Amino acid sequence: MGENTIVPSIVVYVTVPNREAGRKLAESIIKEKLAACVNIVPGIESLYRWQGEIHQDSEELLIIKTREPLLEALTEHVRANHEYEVPEVIALPIKGGSLKYLEWLKNSTRD
Amino acid sequence: MGENTIVPSIVVYVTVPNREAGRKLAESIIKEKLAACVNIVPGIESLYRWQGEIHQDSEELLIIKTREPLLEALTEHVRANHEYEVPEVIALPIKGGSLKYLEWLKNSTRD
Amino acid sequence: MGENTIVPSIVVYVTVPNREAGRKLAESIIKEKLAACVNIVPGIESLYRWQGEIHQDSEELLIIKTREPLLEALTEHVRANHEYEVPEVIALPIKGGSLKYLEWLKNSTRD
């Protein structure tokens, strides 16, 4: 299988209010090499509790693929470029997959 | 970074047959404080094997964000409020992200 | 709770250029018992870096549920049946959920 040349990688979920905000945030994340790829999932309906009330909003979901060591910088970037007071930024560990893809992910992101 | 005040958290996938069933289940989950937030992803096409045959159905996907210790109660709640004989309930570990978000998740869910 | 009869399981993400390609790949994966279930998520907009340029494409996302030991065979199957040079195949660990569902997942996949 050859020497493992990939880095610990993660999938990060961030929800945004609409396509425009999602695209703008995704472009800035890729430009800054904070992630290799962002998928924008349309037409999300979100239910959540905020200050004791249940809310129902339309959102879009960004599925971001990046290196684990970039999570803090990515979280700070989202915080600084998002209209919500407390934007969702949650990371899921990638535990394997196509080594060629994970190699590409590594080469498309900052050290 | 301050004392880690968050709790082990998870993303849980549950598929449902349609929007109405999805919304009803999501609302009950939030009301019971079994999760802080539920995203409903529309227009899913599902292919699966059931009793030896390959089936193709339209579904919606609930992406549920909650505390890990609530997984068993959430699984039981889904089982009791879902029309499928064996509903999908699978949990993915959240390994980090925005501490403010994870704090909000903790405060929006039961102990 | 009875003896844990389930196997380590994973959620695998694979992106595809369109519904036709997604359906064909999903059917072949289920037929080969390389997974128990595939959800196709429509209308994805993907932004990514390829050979130094930022690209924006329409895609669909396959969310595949299978056993962890099948990841290598699934990755090879995707590589051999996908039009991309480097298709995305990334695995997220399932850490719990409905035992009945996970039992069904095990029985719907190859050993």
SSE layout:
Three copies of one chain form a homotrimer.
Chain A: E1 9-16, H1 19-31, E2 37-50, E3 53-67, H2 71-80, E4 90-94, E5 96-97, H3 99-107
Antiparallel strand pairs in A: 1-3, 1-4, 2-3
Report on the architecture of this protein:
Chain A is of the alpha+beta class. Chain A has a single domain (9-107), classed as 2-Layer Sandwich (Alpha-Beta Plaits), CATH 3.30.70. Chain A has three helices and five strands. Chain A has helices at 19-31, 71-80, 99-107, and strands spanning 9-16, 37-50, 53-67, 90-94, 96-97. A four-stranded antiparallel beta sheet of chain A has the order 2-3-1-4. Chain A starts with 8 loop residues before the first strand and ends with a helix. Chains in contact: A-B, A-C, B-C. The interface between A and C is medium-sized, with 31 and 28 residues. β2 (37-50) of chain A pairs antiparallel with β2 of chain C.
Q: Termini separation of chain A (Å)?
A: 24 Å
| C-alpha Rg of chain A (nearest Å) | 15 Å
Low-confidence stretches of chain A: none
CATH topology of chain A: Alpha-Beta Plaits
- Biggest sheet strand order of chain A reads 2-3-1-4
Please indicate the count of domains of chain A: 1
Describe this protein with a few key phrases:
homotrimer, 111 residues, Alpha-Beta Plaits, 3 helices, N-reg_PII-like_a/b (chains A, B, C), N-reg_PII/ATP_PRibTrfase_C (chains A, B, C), Protein CutA 1, chloroplastic-like isoform X2 (chains A, B, C)
